[in-house]
Amino acid sequence: MFLPRLLVLGAMTAYAGLRLRKHLGQGQAALQPDAKTKAIEDVLEEDPVCHRLVPRKQALTLNRPEGIRYFCSESCRRIFLQPEKEQA
Known about the structure:
Helices cover about 50% and strands about 20% of the residues.
């Protein structure tokens, strides 16, 4: 009776040790910087019409005296360009 319990306990301990080792190994790999990791190269801009955040490189732009406006779509840009009385 003692030997089977000892074998089961040993097997469970070995399994738990292997799982812990695997888990800790993955954590260390995740903390180390990857050579392929790039720095963030883009900025999010808010569409003034729908308030959606759009990557600057993908956004449609409109140059205004007050600055560049960024839009998520052509329809938002058209709405922005409409006179104020037509927007209501």
